[in-house]
Structure formats: C-alpha cells, structure tokens
Amino acid sequence: MRVSALGYLFFALVSLGCETRLSVAEEPSVFRRPALAEASQELQLRGVHLARIGQVPSALLSLQEAVRIAPFSAVARYNLACMYAKNGQPDEGLSTLKRAIELGFRDTSIISKDPDLDSLRELPEFSEIANEAKKPFEPSSSRTSQFDNGIAWVGPENTVWEEVTNQLRTGFDWKQPEKPRSIILEHGEVGKRLRKWFSEGTAAGNFGDLYDNCDRDHSNFKYSQFPQLHRIEYRPEILADVPQGLQNRLLHGGVVIGNSSTSLVNSPIWRSNPRMAYLMPSSMTALSRQYFHNHLYVYPEHHDHDPGRTGSESEGNGDLYPANTPYVLISQGSSYTDQPFLDALACTLAAFRPAVKKRLAEAGLITPTLQQIFRTSYKQVKKPEDYLTGIAHPSVFEGSQIDPLKMVEAAHAMSDETIPPVVRIRVEQQDRGFVGRDYFEVTEREHLFDTPCAIARIGRSLKYRRRMIVSARDSIDPNQAPLKFRWVVLRGDESLISVKPLDDDGTRADITVAWHPRRKIQPNSPMESNRVDIGVFAYNGKAWSAPSFISWFFLDNEDREYDDQGRLLSVTYHGGSDKSHYVDPLIQTPKTWRDDYQYELDGRLIGWSRTRGTGADQKIEKFTADGGLVIEEDADGRALVAQSVHYIAQAEEKSLPKLIQQLGDEVWRYAYADSNDKIGTVISRGKVDAVKNENVGLTTKP
C-alpha cells in the first residue's frame, strides 16, 4: 500500500488524541512536551484535512504552526517537509526533512515511497538526506536519580520524553540498603503476618515500590507506615508543568501505586478522572501502557456512580461510566475514599515472595496480578464461582468491602507456577454503522477505544443488533501453559446478548448485542446503567486471569421503539434540557427531534420522517433510505429529488454545542421500476452551486 505523509500522520498519531491548545516557549520544559505535542497533533490533523480538500497553502500554514508549537517533534517536521514539497518549495522541504531525521524520524520505507516527496527525489541532496535515516538513532538515554531519604524526586535530571508514546519516563537508581527498614508499622493481623514473613525471608517487602500522589497531597497515603516504600515528589521548579488529576503522562521507573482524589466540577463537562480517561482514546492508550508497566492508580467516582436519575452534577445519575476496564480502580464516594485501596495494595505488594515479585515486575505483570487478587478477595465474592460473574467486576468498588488480609494471604501463597495469565483481546470483525444513515453525528463515533484489555463501543446505530468477532489469541501465560477462555456476560440482559465461542478452547467468540435501554445493574440494586459488559477470562490450569472487558454503552437520551422483527419504528432524541436523560456531551452531541421509519413489505427501509417542534411550530421533513433530504416528490409521495445532508456541532453562548443539520453539495435524482417500487434507484448525482446552511427541503405541517 502506498502510504503518504498524511496517511503516516494518521497511523502514527491519531490514537494519541488532541486535548489542549498551548503556546510554546523557545525551549519547552520536557514536562510540557506531551501537552505541546497534542496541540501540535491537532494542527497536523487540521492540515491533513485541508490538504485532502486541495487547500495546500492553508495546510502548510497549519503545519508550520504545528512545528512552531512542538519544534522537538520529528513527525511534525516530516509532515511539514511533505507539505513544502507539495507546495513547490524544495529547499524548505529538504531542510525540514533533514531536521526531522536529526530528531529521530527513521521510517525509511515511508521516505522512499511517499508520493508527497516525489518532487524532492530527483534533487541531488535527497539521497544524502534519506541515507541519514538508515543510520541508528540515539535517543535521549534514560536517566536515573538517587533517592533522598525515602523520596523519589522527579525532575529534568531523570525524565525523558518519548515521541512514539507521547509520554514521559522517569528513572531511579535502585540500590538495596544493607540494613532494610521495617516492612510495615501497625496494621493489626495484616501487619503481624507481613512482619513474620519478612523476618523469615518469604515476603519481598516494598523495596522497589513507589507511591505517586497526583492531587497535590490533598488525599495523601499514609506512606510513613510503609518504611520501605518510596514516595514520588516533583521538583518545585517543574510542579506547574505536572498536571494533577488524571495521571496519563508519566511512566515511572518502578512498581507504582498512586491516586488523585480530584474531579472536574462546576462545568458543563463535569466528570470524574476515570470517566474523563474513558472518553479519550489517547488516555486509554496511556492507561493500558501503565497496566503493563506495573502502575495502578485509584480514583474516586465522585458523582459518576450514585443511584438516581437527575442529570445533575451533585445528585445521583446511576452508573455514568461508558466502559469497564482493568486499568484503574475506582472507589465509591469522593475525597479520601481511595485510602483503603492504597493501603491494601501496598500491603499486597509487600506480601509477594521475593522471586515471584521480581518475576512479575520484570514481566510487567504486577498490575494484572493485583487486579486478580483484589477482585477474587472482594468481600462480595462469597464463593469461587462468583469471580466469573458481575459481582466481582463492577465499575466501582466499595472500600468497606476490601479484604486486605485475604489479599496478602493470596499474594504470599502465589508461586511461579500459580501466576495468573493475562487476557489480551482484539476485534477481528464487526458491524459498522454509517453517519447520516444509521446514526446522526458530526463524524464516526461508534468506536470509543480499542486497547489490549478493554474494548468499548457506543451503541449509536439504529440497528437492533450489533455483531463483532473478538479474539483472545494474543493472551499471555508466563509459563506458556495452554489457556482456556470463558466469555461471560457481566452486565446486561442475557436474553439480548449472544456470546458463541468459535473453537474448543474459547479463543475466539462471536458476540451479538441488541439495543439495551436503561436497567438495574443487578436485580436488587438501586444502581442503573445503560452499559453492557462482557468479561473475558483465561485459565491456565492453576489460576484465572484478571478480566478483560468488551463494553457497549447505549444512549439514555434516546427513546427507541422496535417491532417484533427488530425493525426500528421511531426514535425520540432528548438532547435539550431534559436532565433525566443525561448523556455525557463528549459521547453524544445533543439533538432534539423525532424520526419515524417506513419499510417495504419485505422489510427494506423506504426512509424516515423527521419531526421538529410542537403545535403551530411543528415541521416535518422526509428523508430517503440513503439519508438524503427530500426536496421534490411525485404524485405518490415518492422522492424524485433529494439533497445530501451532513451534521455539525454548533455552540451557542454559554451552552454546550448542539447537533445542527446542514444541506450538502450533492443533489440525487431517483427513478422507480413501477408503481409498487417505494425505494427507487439513484439515477444521477450532481453538484449544487450554492447551498444554504439551514434546514430546508420538502416540509409539511401536521
């Protein structure tokens, strides 16, 4: 396949997302680079769009600004070089390409085949510059720093930025003390067990473990009770550049437990840190890396998981999380509810046998193993078979239900042979909904995220059932034991969900999920949800893995009516001020209308009518099955001419954006085989010279 610079940009960067716009200093701090790189990526994506529609000069300006904001980015430089070449500026293209290679761009296959560089290839300097990309690149070496009386200081001296992940890495000089400190203070029976095991040499202790507080010491863990644990502190001069709240920027050089008792409040986009992460593919990629780098953070749910249905920030709205993941732990409640989680995790890390803990840490399996121990030990899991049910895997956990003693006993009993496997999943095949026909949004937004241990989709499509085939073939067992898999409905109406394993070991499964209205998460629970969770578990003959999740989130602000054949009859969209139908505005752009669908006798869609307003202000528009707005009909009410439609988000002052319908630039003409044909065929497509951005077309009054 021929991959252009624009294609490379999408493959390399689009998963990182775009979260902020920032100005840039001449020499930006390494701690500002992730945010600056994201702002640069946003400008690069804008340049991609402009170039695709033929506006190369404007695309060039966007890419120049992308490089100005992130002069350290090799990818930004490379794409600017391509745009210079496309704009007929060979000298600037060559010099910018050279600088991209100096910064570390090493994809020689792209350089040799990229059609955007065609105008440069015949120049004598090109070969010399391209040959430099064949040489090994020496990135900034990982740096380390020593500890200062139990403090693991983070600063420029031990931090590097990685462009491929857009994350920061810190390093520490781990030297085992000649005389280890006490393993733990107080802690009742748990403390007695740990002190006994440590004195016998069968418990590893907390040397090598780090505590990372990300809320400026608002909810600080009682690390003084764990003398071997090192706490991370950020140098005062860089503190302003280290974001508090969701920790999705750094990978630290050790085993990490951390927390942030913060949430985004007093804003139209109020949410907890986990909900914020679940809405951004870039953050989910970062959290999945933490999962396999021995990091586990705890965040309170604040008001994202409380019984009720008010649409209010300070009152209950049910379970608002659009997905379930094994990457974090979420505590029920607000500030300080994360403390019993941190305490139990620190005790469990100390309880592992030295050889087992070393192996887990070196293999990046600490966090999956902690998740498995935490969930199997949860007090609501009364018997072993409960582990393979939704009881053990809610979105949010109660601190009062944590059993630290059971957790430390499980960790200490673990041997090399009983280390649990890790399930890694990926989608092999899936149904796809089309914007403007199957659902109405600004762009394609059914894929929430795809990560190795959590896949999430938004149930936007108007189809009743959605299908996907998922594979767990990439799963890991540290002892290479053969694995068997279980696919379990953890949340949802099992009568509306089909999970069919496709082989004897359950390595792959064919999954079908029907539309789910809001329902109780468990029969007797006051909590309600619009989400389906399917858990995937692996068994190696000794232990079950932590779960991986496939989540489907259905929209509470849509009232849908289906017939007994699964055909959609109507949808009413509650996107206005009706707070009892709250959906996160980053999941769905609010809209307010009703669509009613019509079908042929054989079940094929004829089209739909869209009703806006009420009473004298009510207006009805007609749409074809292709999603075109009908502007001319024949005597039988069939479309003769329709115009393409697209949708934009339009913000009003001091309010969230709303979805606005606009006419496109194509006119479609239809013909019919006979008087019984209600659907017709498009016989011509033509451009219109000018299109007004307003709702116009064939409209009727009721």
The number of helices is 15
Please give the domain count.
Answer: 4
Uncertain regions: pLDDT < 50 for 5+ in a row? Answer: 1-25, 690-695
| Overall residue-averaged pLDDT value | 91
Assembly annotation? single chain
Beta-strand portion reads 25-35%
Structural class: alpha+beta
**Termini Cα gap:** 53 Å
- Secondary structure: number of strands: 34
Tell me the helix content: 10-25%
Give structural notes.
The protein is an alpha+beta fold. It folds into 4 domains: about 5-130, Tetratricopeptide repeat domain (Serine Threonine Protein Phosphatase 5, Tetratricopeptide repeat), CATH 1.25.40; about 150-420, no CATH class; about 425-555, Immunoglobulin-like (Sandwich); about 560-700, no CATH class. The protein contains 15 helices and 34 strands. Strands 1-5-4-7-10-13 form a 6-stranded parallel beta sheet. A 6-stranded antiparallel beta sheet has the order 25-26-27-28-29-34, with no helix packed on it. Strands 15-16-24-23-18 form a 5-stranded mixed beta sheet, with helices on one face. Strand 15 (about 445-450) and strand 16 (about 455-460) form a beta hairpin. Mean pLDDT is about 90; it is low at about 1-25 and about 690-695.
